[in-house]
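Note to self: keep these together.
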Amino acid sequence: MGAQADQVRDDIIARIHARGLRPGQRIDEDEIRSRLGLSGTPIREAIIALEALGLVERRPRAGVYVKALDLAGVVQLLEAHAEAEGALAYRAARRANPAQIARLEAALAACERFPASAENGADYYDLNLAFHEALFACAGNAYLAQTALRSGTILLGYLHARHCLPGEPERSATEHRRIFQAVVAGNAADARRLMIDHVMMKDEQILDVMNHVQGGSGQAG
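Structure:
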C-alpha cells in the first residue's frame, strides 16, 4: 500500500479514535477525496486495508461504513479483547520497570481525578485509554499490544459508550487502582484476572451499550 493510501487509512482510524466516526456511520469517500486532495485509487486501497482489519464494512449499493457489530459480535470480540488485555496485565506485573510504573501511576491518578459529578462520562474514555496504553508499555510485548489495540479500535464505539453510562467512570477508576496494585506487587495472576473482569461487561450492560451506540449512529436494528 502506498503512502497516500496509508494517509487515508490513518485519517479514518484517527477519526474513529476521536469518535468522529461511530459504529454504523457511513464513510464519505467524496469528503475524504476533497479534504485530502487525493484521487479515488488510494482511498479504495485504504478501504480494502481497513476491511481486512475488520474496521469497516461495505454494504451493497450503500457504500462503506464503520463496522457495526451485532450482539454476538460484541460479546465474542469483547472476550478476545479481554484475554489480550489480561495477558498484557500478566506480563506487566512480571516486567514493569520503575519508569513504566511511574507512567502507569500518573495515568491512574488522572482517572481518579475525573469528577464523579460529571454529567457525561464520555470525556473519561481518553483517560481510560491512557491507563491501558501505559499498562501495555509495562508488558514489553509490542505484538500483543497491537492485538489489543486492534480489537480495542473495532470495539471503540462500544467501549466509549460504556463510559457514558451512570457510574461507569467511578467503577473503572476503582478497578484501575486494583490492577495497578497487583502490577506493582508483581502478582501476575491477580493482575490478569482483575483486567479480564475489568474489560468484560454483564449482559444487561452490553444491551445498554448497544442501545446507546445505535441511538448515536442512527443505525437501525
